[in-house]
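User: For a benchmark we're assembling, each entry needs the component sequences followed by a predicted structure for the full assembly. Here are entry 17's components. Please fill in the structure.
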Amino acid sequence: MRAIALLALYLTFLIPLANAQLAPQAPTVEIMDDPSENWFIAMSWGHGAYIYDATTGEMQGLLSTSRQTPAVQPNPARKEFYAAESYYSRETHGDRTDLLTIYDFENLSPIAEVEIPNKIAILPFRTYIQLLSDGRHVGIFNMTPAASVSIVDIVDRSLAGEISTPGCALIMAVGNNDFLMICGDGTMQLVQLDDEGSESNRERSRKFFSVEDDPVFDHPVPFNGGWLLVSHLGDVFHVTVDRNTIHISDAWSMISEEDAEENWRPGGFQLKSVHEGTGLLYILVHQGGEYTHQDPGTEVWVFNLAAQRRIARIELEVETSNIMVTQEFEPKLIVSDDEGGLHIYDALKLSLDRTINDPGPGPFSMQDL
Amino acid sequence: MKPSELIEHGYVWLDSRTTESARLLARLISRRSFLGRLGALFAGAAVLPLLPVARSLAQEAPQEIGDSQSCDYWRYCALGGTLCACCGGTVTSCPPGAELSPITWVGTCHNPADDRDYLISYNDCCGKAVCRRCSCHGSEREKPVYFPSKANNILWCFGTKAHTYHCTVAGILGEAAGLGS
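Assistant: Structure for entry 17:
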């Protein structure tokens, strides 16, 4: 009886007192801060784009794109992301609708969409989508398997047209609203657009590599106004455009005779990245024979591009297929290992800053914001 | 002789040869038997395996060793994807309900059982969610995406109702020496 009386007393006085001290929490929704140069996107195939701060290792938000979206195109000037997406009316089957979906930076929410030809290449390559230099047109690489490029006007939110590009793949934006493509005959193709996003001219470079003997990797990276290409055996090319002319630099080899004797060669998937400010190339390498170009890297080698010389090498604890370096003044090297780990190195001191705990469904391909 | 005369002379020679041949043909066969033989020729052409793919079907299947549910299986030397053999299908058949893509990439693989090279067709099975079992990364003679017929990073669900990727099968097209790789 006494216990019941005490319980009644407790219920009468103490609980309301506790409630009075702790105000009820109303859940809210975050607004994403403006991205910094140290932010990066860890793109998870089929699971969206995880946005991270490389300095803190904190996740900032998720872009939930279609399962068929391998990369997104940020546009900081308009605070928008562009994602080429492919949807089926019944998730894995049914009617197909391809879209260029426009997401805002603040809420990572879709704010507009443009229907595009149902042809987008489901290729896990960053350069299957590109914002062109006028900031108005986005190119999306198509494959049916015939190759073409859809051009979308992201200001008018409309399809500007489709350009047939037989024998050539990927989109590498250069100046004057033009873009380069790599072609199966060992050349580069320049496609030039007018102000409306229609093709005005196209040019072809000299043949500079052999697809049979030593093809260039299909993961070009931007560098110094052009694009850097590396061949399976380690030849490095810099491709630039001057008006209607494609310039291919003389090749230099990142593999010395001694390295070659030890069977070192580049390999992986997103195997290289360049920090523009310092002119440093970071590239995954492994020891292996012919046809091991997709094998994961066991080391990252760092090259000074101006001197064409290796300046450092980093041993990796876990084999890795994807790396990226951020473009800030003190850059970070992001390593997505093949076991799903996501690691952040100081890209100049070459020391491990942190490993992100439970980073999401990796391995990831990474990209800048 | 002027060029015009030369041409005229040529026509006369051609005419006479054609006439002679036609007369010889008419002497040897009746019109009805000619049409009959011509018909048989066309019918035979339809049956004859003209394409390398069809020709390979006529060949005897090679001896094989290994586990078709393992990435090390010899046919998977250039296969990038997941194995249908692990997902309810076989090395050459899609799992139930999947749609076989008619468009493929090809690889050249060495069969350790008979020490010969074979051209392998990798067909994707499509229209279902990806089967996340037995993921393989074979890259022998594999080429980048700008050379699509030998690129294994492309999802080859082309020519199917839905382009969603499920898994991949590996069929033998024929001996590489006979078909070229």
